[in-house]
Amino acid sequence: MNLAFVGFFITGIVFTIYASTFYHIARKKLHGYLRNYAFSYICLALAFLIWAFASIYPIFLIDSIILGNIFLLLGSIFLLSVLFNSNKYLKCLAVFNGVVLSLGFIYIRVKYFAPTPYIESGVLVFNTQLIIRIILDLLFIFIWLPANLMVAKTITKNIKIDGLNYAYSFIYSVSTVSAALLINFKTVPMIVLSFVVLGISFIMLLYSNYVINKLIPSQK
Length: 220
Hints:
Order of helices and strands: HHHHEEHHH
Largest sheet: 2 strands, antiparallel
Helix content: over 70%
Distance between the termini: 51 Å
Shape: globular
Structural class: mainly alpha
Strand order of the largest sheet: 1-2
Number of strands: 2
Number of helices: 7
């Protein structure tokens, strides 16, 4: 059984459903700029789906890692537009710098740090080099995590339920850390564990989207 295909495919589908439901909430009940947050998870979903199919056709495995990194960077750029939305100048500057740095990252990734993934016991091991792991970890720590926490605060501020923001923030934090660890781990048991935690986190977020959609009044 190809666990890599099953894990990445299911997670990619969950990300897609999560992004689409959040897009619906953002469009009708939240600020329009939060639609970019949904787009970031569409990008992450595409990365996971690419890795899923590459795990079946290992000849494309190396190329899939590069493509996945591109979608991860694109998702990060969408999140930069969310984080700096309150200031138009800073937003443009952040997005521009994000694009430039992303292009530089892809160049050094292809030129000097080519991916060396492999399949072990039906599980995809990214086997990412240290410098690339550090860069990707910084993306998750300084872009994905703050953006997730900001969105958690935004969507819960008008809902008078004690502890909801903390619960939402906790789930977002766990899911972000799990996604980062998935790329870092090099042992099969830890990769599987990070998949399980990531999947459970986003199933909880899917349910919370349903609940919050009922609780947040529509924008007039």
